[in-house]
Design a protein that fits this description.
Blueprint (H helix, E strand, L loop, with lengths): L5 E6 L3 H11 L5 E7 L2 H11 L3 E5 L7 H11 L4 E6 L4 H10 L3 E4 L4 H12 L4 E2 L1 H13 L16 H11 L4 H8 L3 H15 L4 H9 L11
Parallel strand pairs: 1-2, 1-3, 3-4, 4-5, 5-6
Helix pairs in contact: 2-3, 3-4, 6-7, 7-10, 8-9
Amino acid sequence: MADSTIRVLLCDDHRIVREGLKRLIETVDDIVVVGEASSGEQALDLINACCPDVVLMDVRLPGMSGTAATSTIRSGHPHVHVLALSTFLDDELIFGALRAGASGYLVKDVEPEYLFNAIRLAANNDAVLSGNAASRLITRVLEDGGPAGDEASPLSRLTPQERVIVDCLAQGLSNADIAETLVISPKTVKTHLGNIFHKLGVHNRTQAVSVYLRRPPGAGHSLD
């Protein structure tokens, strides 16, 4: 096995889903399944034994939820990245998984090549959302007229479009991707980013996303 091979742990309570994912992954050379778990508790037990780079985590699990397992994995093993998987495009599942530390949210009927690229992105500490999940995320931010809760938070200073842009940053989108998504020019995106950094009191994209994801519950709906 090459050192560059991405090690994946599968966590899903349906054996047929795990077998399907494993067979798909076996068709590429740079990703390998190193373990399988049928529950969040079992996934936690296997982390040290399997040493995965990425966990494909079903968000709906019996017992410990996938979201809770994700949070525990990310807290105890920050080098292990988690991709949330679900049959459902549910706002609360999407936002809950991201708040728990997942690198992305994918539906289980995602195209194989998209799944492979998502695993590669997650292993590289990048964020990814399947197209429909990204659309729901952006729509919900646009529908939120302003951050609720703590008005003293730096986030309350952001305009709705600026909050959409920070959401895009959290997804790992480049300036060009953001421009295409919002139908604005890359120059306009750059201007918005400058304003966002100033309002949040940060110096770069990573710090901006960190402030956004650490906001308290109730401070807007975009990732809650």
